[in-house]
Amino acid sequence: MNNINIFIVGVGGQGTLLAGKILGTYAALTGLDCKLNEVHGMAQRGGSVVTHVRMGEKIYAPVISEGEADVIVAFEKLEAFRFRHFLKKDGIIIVNTQEIYPMPVITGTVKYPENIEETLRESYNVIDVDALSVALETGNTKTVNTVILGILARRLNFDFTIFEQAMRLCVKEKHVEENLVALKRGYTIE
């Protein structure tokens, strides 16, 4: 396997850190080297959370430089827009179409940008999905991250059985079944 750089973005509470942990566990289970780097920011106040995941035969540094991400996984579309410069020219952005307003939008200081997906599509290969609706079908809106990870696993041709095992190892036992449903649903999304 060639080295792969996955740049995960979202806001506090969306499970970006858990997603990174699942990917790191998958790498370990498949015998790949993996380095993770997390930037929490103002996560507890709905701020950006970024996780760098680098995996492959031998990884020397945990940070993905601008223009080097093979995939951006965005749990919120404004976060995809904010960090799009990290994507390499032929990379893909997997984006949840959910809108979570940052504090300046909530207070009325600025407006939430319009047409984010269309703007991204002008320059990038974008896979957009209403992962919140899919997560609602599982009975838990907190499975948005797992829906998106299912999409990622399919796009990167990850072994689903091993990926499922990684998810089971990282998710609290009481939430495994709903996350498994979400993972499978994401994996089937075209």
Strand order of the largest sheet: 2-3-1-4-5-6
Extended strand count: 6
- Strand coverage percent: 15-25%
**Quick one: CATH superfamily?**
Pyruvate-ferredoxin oxidoreductase, PFOR, domain III
Q: In CATH terms, what is the fold-level topology?
A: Pyruvate-ferredoxin Oxidoreductase, domain 3
Average pLDDT rating: 91
CATH class: Alpha Beta
Main beta sheet, described?
6 strands, mixed
Low-pLDDT parts are none
Structural classification: alpha/beta
How many domains is the backbone divided into? Answer: 1
Helix content: 25-40%
Series of secondary-structure elements, N-terminal to C-terminal: EHEEEHEHHEHHHH
**CATH architecture descriptor text:** 3-Layer(aba) Sandwich
Assembly type: single chain
Report on this model:
The structure is a single chain. With 190 residues, the chain is of the alpha/beta class. It has one domain (4-188): Pyruvate-ferredoxin Oxidoreductase, domain 3, CATH 3.40.920. It has eight helices and six strands, in the order E-H-E-E-E-H-E-H-H-E-H-H-H-H. The protein has helices at residues 16-29, 77-82, 103-106, 116-121, 131-138, 144-155, 160-170, 176-188, and strands at 4-11, 33-39, 48-56, 69-74, 87-96, 125-129. A six-stranded mixed sheet has the order 2-3-1-4-5-6. It is globular. The two termini are 23 Å apart.
